[in-house]
Amino acid sequence: MRLLSTPVRQLAGLALLAAALPAAAQQPAAAETGKTIQPILTGWRFHQAGKDNWQPATVPGCVHTDLLATKQIPDPLYRDNERKLQWIGKTDWDYETTFDVTPALLQRQHLELVFKGLDTYADVTLNGTPLLHADNMFREWRAEARPLLKAGANRLLVHFRSPLNEVADLPKKYGYNLFAINDEQAMGYVGDKGPVLSPYTRKAPYHYGWDWGPRFVGLGIWQPVQLEAWDAAKITDFHVVQRQLSAQAATLALAVEVEGAATASGPATLVLETTGPDGQPGPRLEQALTLQPGRHTATAEVQLASPQLWYPAGYGAQPLYTFRARLVQQGRPLDAARTRTGLRTLALRREKDLYGKSFEFVVNGIPIFAKGVNWIPADIFQTRVTPRRYHQLLQAARDCNMNMVRVWGGGIYENQYFYDTCDEMGLLVWQDFLFACSFYPGNPEFTDNVRQELTYQVRRLRDHPSIAIWVGNNENEVAWQQWGVPEKMGSHKLEVWSNYLTLYRDLIPTVLHENDPSRPYWSSSPSSDFEDIAGSQTTGDMHYWDVWGSTAPISDYEKQVPRFMSEYGFQSFPELKSVQQFTQPADLDIASPVMKEHQRSAVGNPRLTEYLLRDYRQPKDFASFLYVSQVLQAQAIKLSAEHLRRSRPRTMGSMYWQLDDCWGVASWSSIDYYGRWKALQYYAKRFYAPVLVSPHEEGDQVRVYVVSDRTSALGASLQVRLLDFAGKVLYQQAAPLQVEPLTSKAYLAIPKDKLLKGRDATKVVLSCALTAGGATLSTNTHYFARPKDMALPKAGITATWRQATDSTYQVTLRNKTLAREVWLSLAQGDGFFDDNYFDLLPGETKTLTFKSEGAATLAELRQRLVVRTLAEAF
């Protein structure tokens, strides 16, 4: 049934629009919306079902944070408290509140109670009468509440059933276990087979435990609750479809989905307004339509002249257009909606070439080397992640020259603030759907539940220009092919595989075709699209875990030349200040029970120690072990990331695991749970630089590569020097370069015997610097021996402070000899140095900027500064 009843008319400016519309439609936004929203976020309380010990609750929130806030449990992340709190996920809980409804509100045609997110199995009653039943954390739940509401106070009760008890019998019922990973101990799980139950529940998989996080199978009202009142019609969706885009013009379709009440009839007007990135008004449209019962879509076309294009970080600006739709009938506003987007072309280019088939993102015609990181939820209790925390983490990615984040399929669909911030910062989003390391039921009830989840989430997120690709799952294809899953499924393997194809080859593509056909879809990560095995080096993307996951040498990173590396990583511990936040002094030993508890992998500490001792001597104490573990992690990922970048264009992506951490733990993150940057985060800023100089030993030569993400050629100067640890120049060479755009190329090759000339390789360092226009673009060092084989000089670094602003300082470092892995921190208090974990060459100075997080004088900063180098760690 067509909603559009008259042709679109584009109006020439504000005056004409004002003359054409009823006066009521010209009121400010607050007065225009006939639909009203009454938040229901206060007065909540909770208790364990069956008990009468009601306590105040916070909504949005979860049972663990409410128990913590009311002092009923200790801090779940402190020491080994996790094990003592597993009973919470096995228990039913009640949440209730009362809210007032005015007699006037009861006169509205529709009063819908809306839950933006319920985690997970919930029975909702209103004034003692059942209203709805929920069974999916990732869906919005709404129900017509008008028949159950009354004037005055109304009692709303949400009864949550234990996510563990709810599905405890399903593996036996199905006759097989759908969880793909056999070695649960190695994955760090606690308790009674919680992960086995994850595939049966549409709940964040990481809640059941993972190798980087604890198991807190919680529940609660994790998104806002509201009462929506509307009459003849409301807008249920507003979407911008980009039909054509060039530098000269953009043709957009504004699609507005309208739901009419059962009695809806008569003419109405749809008003569409555009605001440019500069805040100036753009084209305005009005469209006549006839209201009818049910949902219908009206589409209007908008032309924009000389559109401003949205680019990933490092390639251009991120202008964003705002669009607004208003529904008006007989001068009375019915509803309004708003969306924001950026205009860009984006494709996943997969073409046959010398190496197989390419895998590269092309944005506005530019092939983008994806420099990025995997994103996991930033807290085990998601509602504790504030906008400030989101901004800090994403800003850290942007500041370290990243242009892509992968939202991992074992976590959650992130909130609006996350995607808005990615839009603003130019961070492309690789978006997994939330299926991870498991196989899933195929019964109609489960499939329909998932279909509604997917439809809701795709429609919610599709206008974000940052989202670059939808991906079906995390590691399920590789699990089937290489983890022995078919054998594990026994006689059910054909059924399980059929369910897999139904979900990832049929259902998800169908939902995307209906709701977002513009973006590429990839059925799994890693995947070869069944052109080869998953994780192939000739086609598709790759996850590589032989380094760390087994005991393969770190040098094996350089044997991997995939088309796109979407996951690889190496572990380290947080620094001592962070460890002290979840321990007591007696716990400060790598072998203590508490430290083992905060190492989720059973093989983690022995493996980390084994890797460390291959390249470094035994650290002298606990704090030194933490420090050297971070240096080891940073060096490992640096080796891989630079190799991947040097392999351009064969390889077109590097996303290490992982940016953030959801609790205080030994993990693969480059920023710890408490927000402190590890060595890896500082390293990333250098190895992801827009122009990178990267020396590399190849046979009997040292080849010096320059990798450029710039879209135009660059005149630069390359300087290479071999120094001894006291600063004597043993070899030097300078060369002017014309750095080619969007390439990796070796611009210099020096025979090793020409460099070393028989000198002791354990006592020299190769320094490379690339400069242009008087500015240093990239520096790098290369060593010819392992740190354990070097006699590094003890540092005698001097530091000179000066105050730049009220909270910003500069510190200049000097040292006569080589200082490796210089790490600056404060003995008391916190702050941020803009560079850290760097090599200070002999005789050189380096000036850093420091931002204090608290009041501190220059004298206090001088006294509190701690300078650590690798030589002092043993």
UniProtKB/TrEMBL annotation:
<dbReference type="InterPro" id="IPR036156">
    <property type="entry name" value="Beta-gal/glucu_dom_sf"/>
</dbReference>
<dbReference type="Pfam" id="PF17753">
    <property type="entry name" value="Ig_mannosidase"/>
</dbReference>
<comment type="subunit">
    <text>Homodimer.</text>
</comment>
<dbReference type="GO" id="GO:0005764">
    <property type="term" value="C:lysosome"/>
</dbReference>
<feature type="domain" description="Mannosidase Ig/CBM-like">
    <location>
        <begin position="701"/>
        <end position="789"/>
    </location>
</feature>
<keyword id="KW-0732">Signal</keyword>
<feature type="domain" description="Beta-mannosidase-like galactose-binding">
    <location>
        <begin position="44"/>
        <end position="223"/>
    </location>
</feature>
<dbReference type="InterPro" id="IPR041447">
    <property type="entry name" value="Mannosidase_ig"/>
</dbReference>
<dbReference type="GO" id="GO:0005975">
    <property type="term" value="P:carbohydrate metabolic process"/>
</dbReference>
<dbReference type="InterPro" id="IPR041625">
    <property type="entry name" value="Beta-mannosidase_Ig"/>
</dbReference>
<feature type="domain" description="Beta-mannosidase Ig-fold">
    <location>
        <begin position="792"/>
        <end position="872"/>
    </location>
</feature>
<comment type="pathway">
    <text>Glycan metabolism; N-glycan degradation.</text>
</comment>
<comment type="similarity">
    <text>Belongs to the glycosyl hydrolase 2 family. Beta-mannosidase B subfamily.</text>
</comment>
<dbReference type="Pfam" id="PF00703">
    <property type="entry name" value="Glyco_hydro_2"/>
</dbReference>
<dbReference type="GO" id="GO:0005576">
    <property type="term" value="C:extracellular region"/>
</dbReference>
<dbReference type="InterPro" id="IPR013783">
    <property type="entry name" value="Ig-like_fold"/>
</dbReference>
<dbReference type="InterPro" id="IPR050887">
    <property type="entry name" value="Beta-mannosidase_GH2"/>
</dbReference>
<dbReference type="InterPro" id="IPR054593">
    <property type="entry name" value="Beta-mannosidase-like_N2"/>
</dbReference>
<dbReference type="Pfam" id="PF17786">
    <property type="entry name" value="Mannosidase_ig"/>
</dbReference>
<keyword id="KW-0964">Secreted</keyword>
<keyword id="KW-0326">Glycosidase</keyword>
<dbReference type="Pfam" id="PF22666">
    <property type="entry name" value="Glyco_hydro_2_N2"/>
</dbReference>
<keyword id="KW-0458">Lysosome</keyword>
<keyword id="KW-0378">Hydrolase</keyword>
<dbReference type="GO" id="GO:0004567">
    <property type="term" value="F:beta-mannosidase activity"/>
</dbReference>
<dbReference type="InterPro" id="IPR017853">
    <property type="entry name" value="GH"/>
</dbReference>
<feature type="domain" description="Glycoside hydrolase family 2 immunoglobulin-like beta-sandwich">
    <location>
        <begin position="234"/>
        <end position="344"/>
    </location>
</feature>
<dbReference type="InterPro" id="IPR008979">
    <property type="entry name" value="Galactose-bd-like_sf"/>
</dbReference>
<protein>
    <recommendedName>
        <fullName>Beta-mannosidase B</fullName>
        <ecNumber>3.2.1.25</ecNumber>
    </recommendedName>
</protein>
<keyword id="KW-0325">Glycoprotein</keyword>
<feature type="signal peptide">
    <location>
        <begin position="1"/>
        <end position="25"/>
    </location>
</feature>
<dbReference type="GO" id="GO:0006516">
    <property type="term" value="P:glycoprotein catabolic process"/>
</dbReference>
<dbReference type="InterPro" id="IPR006102">
    <property type="entry name" value="Ig-like_GH2"/>
</dbReference>
